[in-house]
Design a protein that fits this description.
Length: 332
């Protein structure tokens, strides 16, 4: 029931996901009166893989986190997380209030052993058809060096399992690449990563390195990560808008745009933020994927696919095993 545009966006994405992923079953958490008419219009084979978890409340997009935690225990968001915690669902996806989702997920699912705080991680495009994983994207605006080290371990696992990257290169986002740059927390994190041989740590990167493929995983606190993410998304939308505007300015531009259409289409497909929708809240005892509140149905479908992939790869269990191994490594 969350998101900026109402449940019809999520329901349209749900239909597409059911059609595209034959082994997928969905539990739709929300107001049954709003969902039932849509469900009855689905083909029978899709109906059999879908059921409704009725809830009487909705967490509003601008609602205070404390209010959501205290008074929205029968919300669609809480019901969704309860399904995961009780083992009735393998993972969940929401476009709702980000702060409320993170707080509820932390309360209901708890963190894995060895993890102090969960992190939001998402994939972004890089040069030559590559990709890079950036975390944290806003779950925690202030992080200790130990927490940043945990993020590096978790990010490396996600890049390897979900991204299919062998020995992911891990870097810290900093104000310079020289060893003497950065605050004490960044330097302490770098020392911890250098002392973790099972991670392929390459040192510091700057903001202009995000898309360079210099690193496969870039670690930072939630404040800097969220600013970087929103800036990148804004730039992508600006470039696409300017290309479209320029192509319609005069007849010559229109002709040139038609000639360049295949190239422009490839650029659009690479830069379109929709295909990178779905930030994973990792470090929890369950799979939680956060979609943008203003996502289209196509974008929300990407978030569902992300959750399916993480379920298939058993990401929480793999993070748990890796954290245990590297904690032993640090202790030794």
């Amino acid at each position: 029931m969350g998101g900026d545009f109402g449940p019809h966006i999520i329901l349209a994405a749900a239909k597409s996901a059911l059609s595209a992923i034959p082994h997928l079953n969905l539990i739709l958490c929300g107001d049954e009166h709003a969902i039932r008419p849509w469900l009855s219009n689905l083909p029978t084979d899709l109906q059999t893989r879908t059921r409704i978890e009725h809830s009487t409340q909705t967490v509003l997009m601008g609602e205070a986190v404390s209010s959501a935690l205290r008074s929205k225990k029968d919300s669609s968001m809480r019901r969704m997380l309860d399904c995961v915690e009780q083992g009735r669902a393998d993972g969940c996806v929401s476009a709702g209030n980000t702060g409320a989702l993170m707080a509820m997920a932390y309360l209901v699912l708890k963190t894995l052993p060895g993890i102090e705080r969960p992190a939001l991680i998402s994939q972004m495009p890089a040069t030559e058809g590559g990709k890079v994983y950036l975390l944290d994207l806003g779950a925690n605006v202030d992080c200790s060096s130990d927490v940043l080290w945990q993020y590096a371990v978790m990010g490396s696992i996600v890049a390897e399992l979900v991204g299919g990257i062998t020995q992911p290169k891990v870097a810290l986002l900093n104000v310079g690449t020289e060893e003497n740059k950065g605050n004490d927390r960044i330097k302490a994190t770098s020392a911890l990563l250098n002392a973790t041989p099972s991670l392929h740590y390459i040192g510091y990167v700057e903001g202009n390195d995000i898309f360079s493929q210099r690193a496969d995983v870039i670690v930072t606190d939630g404040f800097a990560g969220n600013v970087a993410l929103k800036s990148c998304e804004g730039l992508a939308k600006f470039v696409l808008s300017e290309v479209k505007k320029a192509s319609n300015q005069n007849w010559l531009n229109k002709i040139l745009a038609k000639i360049a259409l295949p190239l422009l289409r490839n650029i659009y497909l690479r830069m379109n933020p929709d295909q990178y929708n779905g930030a994973s809240l990792i470090g929890l005892r369950g799979i939680v994927v956060k979609s943008h509140g203003n996502a289209s149905s196509e974008a929300f479908l990407y978030a569902i696919r992300e959750a399916v992939k993480e379920v298939e790869m058993q990401v929480p269990n793999r993070i748990k095993d890796k954290i245990e191994a590297v904690l032993m490594e640090r202790h030794d």
